[in-house]
Amino acid sequence: MRAPELKGRGWLNTGGKALTLADLRGKILLLDFWTFCCINCLHVLDELRPLEEKYGDALVVIGVHSPKFEHERDPQALAAAVERYGVHHPVVDDGDMHIWQQYAAKAWPTLAVVDPTGYLVASMAGEGHAEGLSRLIDELVAKHEADGTLHRGDGPYVPPPAPAGLLHFPGKAIELPSGNLLVSDSARHSIVELSPDAETLVRRFGGVRNEPFSEPQGLLLLPSEVSSIAGYDVVIADTVNHRLRGLSLTTGEITLVAGSGRPWRSTVDDHAHDALAADLSSPWDLAWFDGKVIIAMAGIHQLWWFDPIQRTVGVYAGTTVEALRDGPLPDVWMAQPSGLAVQGDRLWIADSETSALRYVEGGVLHTAVGQGLFDFGHVDGPADQALFQHPLGVAGLPDGSVLVADTYNGAVRRFDPAAAQVSTVDSGLAEPSDILVTAAGEVLVVESAAHRLTRLAPGVVKTVAGERHKTERPPSHLAPGEVTLDVIFTPAPGQKLDSQFGSPLRLTVSASPAELLLDGEGTTTELSRKLVLNPAVPKGVLQVVAQAATCDVDAEFGACHLTRQDWGVPIVLDTAAPDRLPLILRGMDA
């Protein structure tokens, strides 16, 4: 089919020019449907970088930003995100989800390939498609070069001006024993030590992407009795490199302490694993709890633990299903946990994609504030009615209350556990991503999009009865009663299903609320499933996790691959609607 036109609200990284498909004729187009809150979308940005370099004169990547959260609809916030994450290709602002609907996208991220003559030739959801895309692009290059329809040359990307200033999109901050501050300067790929005034540079570690850091985030000062044995003082979440590193404050030496550097692709059992051999996934924050380093593993919606003395890691909480479900650890659901703080016997969690404040106590996960993947806003009052919008940071106060960096609301919020009430402490901040309560009782906010640390004025409390929002992602309409869920999977070029260790397919289905599904919940080894939807529940969310194992064809030592995607599909029951829900795990057909 002909590729639909790219009609958006505006363009970035093009020097102000609005692009059309006619402008791009003769190039292979790779459309990346993303939203900047989504960790899987950020993974894809990094997976695409080698493809952009390899096929630079034949391939044009276009980021199609189709937002989930209200804040992401703000053109200035989108421009900041494009700068923050080093997006080096044109981006079209699809704020009204028009392009999303035209290309029938159903998940973040979704990739679509358009050939040089303007035909849509492939569509696939999720991450981990770089190798399959490379083979497909090779085929398209060969065909269209032979046909004379491939036009090599420079693409439409126009780079933005270089940033200035001491910090550039800082992420997290901690206080050192000296009173100095340690800050992850994420967009400059470095760790910065500042004097207590939060403005004077003492020293900087790193500063070039991948040498040794790439967009680092969380920082943790180890207990002295642990650091003396481990040989380093601070653990650093080297987020985009999928690793943890150790920093000696005395020598400045940086040591790799956990992570193979490969992004996580398959399940991990409940045993301890060698830390350096383990595949991590976008570690975002760190805390010392329960005698271990707890890792907010944002990329796979889990918490992991790391033992710096035994040099082992393992799963602490979560199943990789992206949703909100409480209960005993580890069999709980989270959605991109991004902030951690310890307060007595509680580990507080900023669970960003559910816009929730949650905590672990006594081996059980609880939700203090938050209602699910698609409900968010800026509402104060009783905790069971209050709303956040994609919070990234959390900090405990001496009085037992908790401060939350309510990132997409540009606010600092306070949760009082005793009264079960939420209030607003300050607002008008630029994407606050962390909160630090110093030993002297000062509160510092990492105001990420303003590239600074800001002191919070004491005693300021506001009450906000703001707007409630639901994600305006178009729901799928399905008939009540029996419906068929079909996950469509076609192996990438040069690959085949790998059944040497049993069924290569796995499908897990659940629902929120649970009452939505009368039948069909659970895990099977087929990608098609009969579901029975409850006519008494008019709407909800189907959680679908599908994976397929493949291996290379005609290779003596063929590589193995695992393709996996997690969907949260909002649905509305309608008697006139279809009784089939198709989802594409990886499709080579449009």
UniProtKB/TrEMBL annotation:
A matching Pfam family: Thioredoxin_8
Keywords from the named record: Repeat
CDD domains xrefs: NHL-2_like
InterPro entries: 6-blade_b-propeller_TolB-like, NHL2_NHL_rpt_dom, NHL_repeat, Thioredoxin-like_fold, Thioredoxin-like_sf, Thioredoxin_domain
Domain of life: Bacteria
Domain Thioredoxin: 1-142
Transmembrane segments: none
Signal peptide (from-to): none
Protein name: Thioredoxin domain-containing protein
Protein species of origin: Actinoplanes ianthinogenes
